[in-house]
Design a protein that fits this description.
Helix content: 40-55%
Distance between the termini: 21 Å
Strand content: 15-25%
Number of strands: 4
Radius of gyration: 18 Å
Bound molecules: heme C
Shape: globular
Length: 195
């Protein structure tokens, strides 16, 4: 178990692959040495957040500070970098189509992009729960056709002035009074339970 765990932490791709295999094991037999799905979600959350933070600080902010490039929503047609939120959504698109079928998404009760609003009662419940208890992820098992998933929702806070500056002034934002450290939305992670 110790060796397996250290392997899991080795690389991102190994993490995705190995952990999902173990979820398969653990959902059937909890004592088979599998990692509980909640733990897998926590691990994925750490990786997703780290990638986003690194990209935001060392690519977007650095390039902007040096006057080399700016980030903008229309990065595909303009000569600009994707926004960190778009970077996350684009990598999520690749992940969900991978064998691991793991999904993740930024969602909010006040989304700039309407596609990022809650799409089900479970998502709505998760957003309300993390709004009230931001330090604890909300989890629920949800079905998508015959497939079951652990849905884990983690509060997404306004960690910097840039978050609130952009969201409060954005023309498509339904809310303009975010303050530093407010919960702006959440990262939702879907861990498949019956791969
Ligand atoms: C330069 C502008 C900008 C900055 C800075 C920014 N965002 Fe966003 N954010 C956006 C845009 C635009 C979207 C919608 C992207 C899309 O089309 O999915 C978005 C999406 C989101 C969403 C999904 C819900 C929604 O509004 O569509 C969350 C949650 C979010 N951002 C949180 C944050 C946090 C937390 C920070 C700071 C760490 C941050 N944002 C920084 C522009 C910004």
């Amino acid at each position: 178990m110790m060796i397996r765990k250290s392997l899991v932490l080795g690389t991102v791709s190994l993490l995705l692959f190995t952990s999902v295999v173990y979820v398969g094991v653990s959902s059937g037999a909890k004592d088979a040495g599998g990692i509980p799905a909640e733990k897998v979600a926590d691990m994925l959350y750490a990786v997703i957040q780290s990638n986003r933070a690194f990209y935001a600080e060392h690519v977007v902010e650095r390039m902007q500070a040096k006057g080399a490039a700016v980030a903008s929503e229309n990065w595909r047609s303009e000569k600009s970098l994707p926004l960190p939120a778009q970077f996350l959504q684009e990598t999520a698109r690749l992940s969900v189509n991978s064998k691991a079928k793991v999904g993740y998404k930024l969602i909010s009760l006040w989304p700039i992009n309407k596609q990022n609003g809650p799409k089900s009662e479970s998502e709505q419940r998760g957003l309300m729960a993390t709004q009230q208890n931001p330090n604890r992820p909300y989890t629920e098992v949800v079905m998508n056709g015959p497939d079951s998933y652990l849905m884990a929702i983690y509060a997404d806070r306004a960690v910097s002035q840039a978050c609130i500056g952009c969201h409060n002034s954005h023309q498509d934002s339904p809310r303009h009074d975010f303050k530093q450290n407010d919960v702006m939305g959440a990262i939702m992670i879907m861990v498949p339970l019956n791969l």
